[in-house]
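Quick one:
INPUT:
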């Protein structure tokens, strides 16, 4: 990945004033919530589509790779949980306050969130690959 691309995804997280109040710290984090939600939401949509299609190729006809109710309710629960974890980022930053936001918490939290969001898709692709390789469907 290029530095320009990372700068675009993460924003200029290192351009910080010398001192932040607790209120400024929360504002700093909340200014990044929309970018976080858009990225996690985009990865989540791609993951959902991959699970729906690759997962259905991996199981026998009439079987579900994932329960349909989980495919409907799961993303809503996941979105709420992801945003609660985002709040945990600034809460931890406040507990161990050092006068400025810790941009590495945001960066690594975002990276971890993207990985966790993509895992079901990776699992579905792996199951589909095994099915294509062996010719045997799960279920």
């Amino acid at each position: 990945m290029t530095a320009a691309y990372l700068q675009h995804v993460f924003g200029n997280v290192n351009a910080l004033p010398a001192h932040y109040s607790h209120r400024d710290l929360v504002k700093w984090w909340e200014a990044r919530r929309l970018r976080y939600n858009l990225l996690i939401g985009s990865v989540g949509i791609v993951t959902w589509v991959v699970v729906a299609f690759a997962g259905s190729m991996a199981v026998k006809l009439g079987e579900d790779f994932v329960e349909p109710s989980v495919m409907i309710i799961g993303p809503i629960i996941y979105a709420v949980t992801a945003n609660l974890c985002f709040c945990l980022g600034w809460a931890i930053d406040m507990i161990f306050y050092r006068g400025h936001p810790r941009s590495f918490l945001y960066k690594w939290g975002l990276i971890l969130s993207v990985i966790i969001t993509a895992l079901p898709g990776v699992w579905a692709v792996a199951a589909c690959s095994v099915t294509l390789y062996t010719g045997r469907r799960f279920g």
